[in-house]
Amino acid sequence: MPSALPDGEPMPEDGALPASALAGAASRPLGFYLHVPYCATRCGYCDFNTYTATELRGSGGVLASRDNYADTLTDEVRLARKVLGDDPRPVRTVFVGGGTPTLLAAGDLVRMLAAVRDEFGLADDAEITTEANPESVDEEYLAELREGGFNRVSFGMQSAKQHVLKVLDRTHTPGRPEACVAEARAAGFDHVNLDLIYGTPGETDDDWRATLDAAIGAGPDHVSAYALIVEEGTQLARRIRRGEVPMTDDDVHADRYLIADEVLGRAGFSWYEVSNWATSEAGRCLHNELYWRGADWWGAGPGAHSHAGGVRWWNVKHPGAYAAALAGGRSPGAGREVLSEEDRRVERILLELRLVDGCPLTLLKEAGLAAARKARDEGLLEAAPYAAGRAVLTLRGRLLADAVVRGLVD
User: Mind listing the pLDDT tens digit for each residue in 42-54?
Assistant: First the structure.
């Protein structure tokens, strides 16, 4: 979750939403994102809204403590129940992210999940995910999560090569993420993801292939692979500016993406979103699909973003300010925006085009339709789906997805 918050109108103190946000809610899936903003150390490339103990010392007081965070977040889940009123929908997905959620005790994560279940109920086939740092879990921890209702876990692997991990300031040792997959399977997790990053300065094609081979060999049913983005204000950006490491290269990113698609495809993984591959439909991340398809979700935690029926809102960033608002009986919301129909149309194109089934051509205006025809002729959109009324990216189109989207949204 990026650290910068957008501009917007003020959020009411009680967190009340416009009536338009709740209209037709019963027809839309509902998910929860629970943000845990703590990290043991800050990775050099990270621009997320996270805090180490040193960064919080003296700035958040007892309210920002990890020790009582589960109780604080539970207060926001209860607020969500009041704001959403008599919403009959059971929660379809819960995703605990960060930060490093597994810095909290497993019992804390289970209590946070229980708060969602108690206030809203969970769908019978609900997907319940937590992110995890490989060094912050063991077999006992994972077994407690599984017993507490979690059925999916996502480990941050990033690379199998020590020199690449060092550039990223990752603290885990090579081999530990793969061992975590085995431990998760032994604990009863059917669905396991490994997060990878490609294009790190100093990484070679062979390094990337070795990382993919190690990830596949571990036996997950889902792999996410993201190009390294150098965010301003991060330690990595400062190192690049000082000339200590080279700048990342777009051509290298493209080559690494092609390698990923080839290697993962050969191992039985299929892409279903530009940066995500799974071995089956059941292995896909349903929570992320809710985001990509414009469903409703409540984001609880400092800096977390939410969406319901075309209304988007976001919480204050700092854990101390977040906890103080809830302790005072106020919404932690910092601001919100009501999306226009045009905003929602453009957003649908931006998000759905990244999916394997693409977006309907009926979303496009005249200029966008002309751009889609041109993209098809240039081999960026698949011809058969286009003939059936959908814009679906080819492999080359995935490499140039941002450029294709710019054309389609006029």
Answer: 565 555 667 766 5
Q: How far, in Å, CA of 32 to CA of 116, rounded?
A: 8
pLDDT category, 409, cuts 50, 70, 90?
A: very high
Predicted TM-score of the model (pTM): 0.93
Closest CA to 3 of 43, 46, 40, 49: 49
CA 59 to each of CA 41, 52, 64, 258: distance values in angstroms, whole numbers, following the listed order? 17, 12, 8, 45
The CB density around residue 86, as the number of other CB atoms within 10 Å, is 6
The DSSP bridge partners found for residue 153 are: 130, 192
- Alpha carbon 143 to its chain centroid, in Å, reads 24
Report CA-CA distances (Å) from 272 to 181, 325, 350. Answer: 22, 39, 15
Alpha carbons 216 and 194: distance in angstroms, whole number: 9
* Bridge partners for 196 per DSSP: 158, 225
Which token pair is 250? 């777009």
E strands present in 199-338: 222-227, 270-273, 276-278, 296-300, 305-308, 311-315, 333-338
d(CA 370, CA 364): 9
pLDDT digits (tens, 9 = 90+) for 313-330: 999 999 999 999 999 999
Give the pLDDT confidence score for residue 2 in this predicted structure: 47
Q: Is the dihedral of CA 290, 294, 295, 300 positive or negative?
A: positive
Q: Which two tokens stand for residue 278?
A: 């799974």
- For Cα atoms 75, 144, 320, give the angle at the middle one, nearest 5 degrees: 30
Q: Which residue has the tokens 């905003």?
A: 343
153 three-state secondary structure: strand
- Torsion (CA) 297, 318, 2, 352 in degrees, nearest 10: 10
